[in-house]
Amino acid sequence: MFTPKTKQPSEMMTTPELIAQTNQSLLADHQHQLYHLQEILAKKQIDIEPVIQKLQAFQVSVPSWALGTGGTRFGRFPIGGEPRSIEEKIADTSLLHQLTGSNNAISLHIPWDTSLDYSAVRQFAHSRGIKFDAINSNTFQDHPQQVYSYKYGSLSHTKAEVRRQAIEHNCEVINIGQQLGSKALTTWLGDGANFPGQNNFRKAYERTAESLQEIYRYLPTHWQMLIEYKPYEPNFYSMVIPDWGTALLLAQQLGDQAQVLVDLGHHLPNTNIEQIIARLAGIGRLGGFHFNGSSYGDDDLTTGALKPYRLFLIFQELVNAMWSDAPTNASDIAWMIDASHNTKDPIEDLMQATEGILIEYAHALLIDQKMLEYMQEENEVVQAQEILQAAFRVDVRPLVAEARFRNKACIDPLTFFRAQRIRAALIEKRGVASRATGL
Ligand code: RM4
Ligand code: MN
Ligand code: MN
């Protein structure tokens, strides 16, 4: 059983003093850039204060499986020092949060993150300033202790006993989440078919809806159920929940506590994701969001590295929804980075993703929503487009750095992480062959 220890200095990879000291050496340069930007934006009647405050408040959670090196079905290239337990995953999240000031929660995946004593885990996380975001069930793999296989599906399976096992697993995940203080269950199903004729589409959907109904009945009243969709993989002919339409239909059948979760990588190339966001936010059904970058499908690459403009357009829809009082409030959305790192240090990649997210959020916050609305109403196509592009082309990095600085995190997290040789310290502590659980 895990018993939380008091923090030993050697266990800490960094300290608030060290961060403050490093920030001091960067402060003059940073402030120079910030004032310069402030002047430019003031000429456009944009006040940077509310923007910085919103950036400070934005928190995006870390999935426990993203703290180790991911891989593909062809191979994996571990870098060492990976977290070996749920506590070490929490410690890495806490470290990341100290550096960025924007990652105060972890999202667990059961059974990758099981423990014999969840109240001790909760206490440990609390001591490290980390909360538990949406908790994920996993019925897309077979687990050592289970009786029935999910080879042919889980909540949609033709056999009642397999469905029962998958339903019970989800209820168990809710139980664990309750002990940790989590408030949402995320269900993503691998269910589907690889070949035409394999599945009866209608029946597979009905069985899934019935199974979800049972889980929904078990959901505590203050919880949300987040339904995630994906067009293909692991099944390549059909997925039972392939798109937002199906996820929304299920959510509507289940009730108000059920919402749709949008994972950026779960769309076919060129899908207009911002429109999906606007649609769901507009009817109060956008409950969760998984950030990542993608060229083709569920690539799980660094957010913002490939399509920053699309990410900006998505944030514009969210900011606009908040501005216009749409039923979905951004503060109710479970934000998470759902990425996997093949060739990078996971912590460095998470820092880059967090920065990429905040940059596009900042860009969207620069938009004069009222002016944009006017241009739209007047069919001023060119001007409306100009408003968006002008915001996107501002270098907002000093605003993001200022938000971090005010959150007592690093002005430049990546350089700090490298200068302090944090990965080397983790390898020394956990070994070169340590492997995190996950994909
Ligand atoms: C899926 C989906 C889920 C995540 C798993 C690991 O593609 O994105 O959110 O839990 O991968
Ligand atoms: Mn996801
Ligand atoms: Mn995915």
UniProtKB/TrEMBL annotation:
Keyword Metal-binding: yes
Taxonomy, superkingdom: Bacteria
Keyword Cell membrane: no
Residues in Xylose isomerase-like TIM barrel domain copies: 118-299
Entries under SUPFAM superfamilies matching the protein: Xylose isomerase-like
Molecular-function annotations in GO: isomerase activity; metal ion binding
Keywords in alphabetical order: Isomerase, Manganese, Metal-binding
Protein name: Sugar isomerase
Species assigned in the record: Microscilla marina ATCC 23134
